Structures are given as structure tokens and as C-alpha cells.
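G., the chain you wanted modeled:
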Amino acid sequence: MKDTTTVIPTIEKETIEKLNFPEQDVHLLRERMEERRSEIEKAMRLGNMFKAKVKIIFEDSEGMKMVETTIWSVSDKNVGLKNGIFLPIHRVHSIAV
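Predicted structure as C-alpha cells:
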């Protein structure tokens, strides 16, 4: 039997600044985009109140990646992480709390 489990590499948040992010959204459905926004805002509240880390699964031009970090802020276009690092919202697949 063939193993079809996909392993998503974990990276350090400082690496995000060096990545290339395509312009297209990783989600096609507006419903999923709204769910993603809700997940991000919930994770930001947890980060601000409890300094809780979350796992962010996102995709750059080379493929899927994961980072475990605290979300400090969110704007219309970016997720703000510690040390002024930003991740484009349109490239986030999901947030695991």
C-alpha cells in the first residue's frame, strides 16, 4: 500500500521575509476566505491575551509550509507576526490553535 501522507515542512518565522508569494488566493470560495479570516482573528486574540502560539499553514511559490508563532496583528492584507514580520492573508490555508 502506498503512503499518501503529505508532510508539510515547518520553518522559522524569520524565513518568511525571504519567501516569494504569488498574487492569487489559495482559496477559491468566498465562504472559505471568510472562515480563514475568522480563524486568523481568533488566533490574534489568543496571541494578544495569552501569548498563545498557533500553527499557520500557508503556501509560497514553492509549496506548502507551516510556521508555529504568535499572531500579533491583522490588516486587510497581512497577518502581523513578532519582529515586524508579515504573511499575506491570501496565501494562508488554515490556522491550527
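The CA atoms of residues 50 and 74 lie 17 Å apart.

Shout if anything looks off.
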